[in-house]
Design a protein that fits this description.
The protein is of the alpha+beta class. The chain has 14 helices and 26 strands. It has helices at 88-91, 142-155, 173-195, 209-217, 230-243, 245-248, 260-263, 266-272, 310-332, 348-362, 391-395, 411-427, 443-448, 486-496; strands spanning 4-10, 14-21, 24-32, 42-51, 56-60, 67-70, 97-104, 113-115, 120-121, 125-128, 134-136, 161-164, 201-204, 222-227, 251-253, 277-279, 285-290, 294-300, 336-341, 369-371, 379-384, 433-438, 452-453, 456-458, 464-469, 478-484. Strands 4, 5, 6, 7, 8 and 13 form a 6-stranded antiparallel beta sheet that branches. Strand 18 (294-300), helix 9 and strand 19 form a beta-alpha-beta unit. Helix 4 (209-217) packs parallel to helix 5 (230-243) and helix 9 (310-332) runs parallel beside helix 10.
Length: 497
């Protein structure tokens, strides 16, 4: 059995939740207090624009960027399965009030994704106010799925649907009825608020991360939950005692002076998860590269030389990499299109076994994935549902020097750039001498090439440039400070250098 633990740390800046399996970090959830997640929030919004060419609409929900609503996400009662969805311009019009729920965070320059197919999650069940559908989590065993399906069919409210969550495993009819009662109460409150409000306004807000993660993930599979906030500890105990009292006994309040995430080395694991290269225990490694279109993961044998033959060495490296890749997908919360370049294997049996191991390991991932079979070149294409920012996007921003390319210009290239920029500016001025401020990168190259002597750069046409080296100047850029005769510039340079 896996020793699964949930650690929650709360401070003035962030709420962080970490899932450990056998003391190894496998998932991390982060939420900044100044910008809490809006996924799951319900808004009374207003349609701003209709885009017939994209069959979508922009909806004002009161945040910085308008939300995006696809026609497929609009509730439309069909008289038969064969009936097609009408064009969006027949369903919505600009200025129309509309109740929507956020299903995807705003990312980069894109606004939030929203739906009118509102859902309300509870401890065991999800209420579908606009649907008659009854479903059960696919993560549950077949026998339990059948039991829960039968109960949900009996207790579901009229003209509304229910989905039994993974946490519903083992729950009795009384527990499920109580959950339905709570969810209907929430929905009635939202209804009253909608009737008495004018757009644009928040109608329902999801709980903050600590309570939300307990509601959605904490179950009998976890040995314990440790939290370092007394206030949130009280809220979690109150919630569990009203829904699943047995689990309340597994919650511990952490009071030691050493920070919780330092004690269990979680901070270091988060730091490592930001790195491009991940070493495997055998000595091989995987490298993870992000592009605008997809995430590419490459597998290499690295220091691992094996014990028998090359094919076996490659096979063992790939197997170990498959398990680590799934861990990194969960830990970094990588979404969208993912291409994995395993080391090429000649044996078809090895390729089949690798594909089986990859899919078996992906069962541990709660996020929806779809995998295409491994190609003869060792490539695996897959998709992973993208709901919010991954760990890298949450904690970092694009480098202003390389603009996300991941490289910086060499010193010789920078030196050439500086020389050419100064030469170009000097050629367009009548003065014979100049003072420029530049970054020190490139200095050694210009000295080595005989162009720079001390702080003086020799130019053509008898002109000279005096350089002030300043690390605050962007690399490869130059700033002209003064121009004039050589005597005048030498006097000024002596005073300011």
């Amino acid at each position: 059995m896996i020793n699964r633990e949930l650690m929650i740390s709360v401070d003035d800046f962030e709420i962080r939740a970490a899932i450990l399996e056998d003391r190894e970090l496998v998932e991390i959830y982060l939420e900044r207090r100044e910008t809490p997640s809006i996924v799951g929030n319900i808004y009374l919004g207003r349609v701003k624009d209709i885009l017939p060419g994209m069959q979508a609409a922009f909806v004002d929900i009161g945040i910085e960027r308008n939300a995006f609503l696809y026609v497929e996400e609009i509730v439309f009662p069909k008289e038969s399965e064969e009936e097609s969805m009408p064009p969006i311009q027949h369903l919505l019009k600009p200025g129309q009030d509309i109740l929507v729920q956020v299903i995807k965070e705003p990312m980069d320059s894109k606004g939030a994704r929203v739906t009118t197919q509102v859902t309300l999650p509870g401890r065991y069940l999800v209420l579908l106010p606009y649907s008659d559908f009854v479903g059960v989590s696919r993560r549950l065993p077949d026998e339990e799925r059948s039991r829960l399906k039968e109960i949900c069919d009996r207790i579901k409210p009229r003209n509304k649907g229910l989905i039994a969550r993974t946490a519903a495993e083992g729950a009795n009819v009384g527990d499920l009825r109580a959950d339905v009662k709570r969810l209907l109460l929430y929905w009635r409150r939202i209804g009253r608020k909608v009737r008495s409000s004018i757009p644009v306004r928040l109608m329902y807000q999801e709980p903050q991360l600590a309570l939300r993660i307990v509601r959605d993930l904490f179950s009998a599979d976890f040995r314990r939950l440790v939290i370092d906030s007394e206030e949130d500890y009280g809220s979690i105990i109150e919630f569990l005692e009203s829904t699943e009292p047995k689990l309340a006994k597994r919650v511990e309040l952490y009071t030691e002076r050493l920070p919780l995430f330092d004690k269990y080395n979680i901070n270091q694991d988060i730091e490592n998860a930001m790195k491009r290269k991940v070493w495997l225990r055998s000595g091989g490694y995987i490298s993870i590269d992000h592009t605008e279109a997809l995430t590419a993961i490459d597998v290499n044998t690295g220091k691992y030389i094996g014990k028998t033959d090359l094919e076996q060495t490659i096979f063992r490296t790939n197997l170990e990499a498959a398990e680590e890749i799934v861990r990194q997908l969960r830990l970094r919360d990588i979404g969208g299109i993912i291409v994995i370049d395993f080391i090429d294997m000649q044996d078809p049996g090895h390729r089949e076994e690798l594909f089986r191991v990859l899919n078996e390991t992906l069962v541990t991932d709660r996020t929806k994935t779809r995998v295409i079979e491994i190609s003869k070149l060792g490539l695996v294409e897959m998709t992973r549902k993208n709901v919010s920012q991954g760990l890298l996007e949450f904690q970092a921003k694009v480098c202003p020097c390389c603009h996300g390319l991941g490289v910086v210009l060499s010193e010789s290239t920078v030196g050439v750039q500086i020389y050419r920029q100064i030469k170009r500016q000097a050629s367009t001025h009548v003065a014979e001498s100049f003072i420029f401020k530049v970054n020190p990168v490139g200095k050694e190259f210009l000295e080595r090439k005989g162009k720079l002597s001390g702080t003086t750069l020799d130019l053509e046409w008898g002109k000279k440039a005096h350089l002030i080296f300043d690390e605050t100047v962007p690399v490869g850029k130059v700033e002209m400070l003064e121009e004039g005769t050589e005597n005048k510039i030498e006097q000024i340079f002596g005073k300011i250098s």
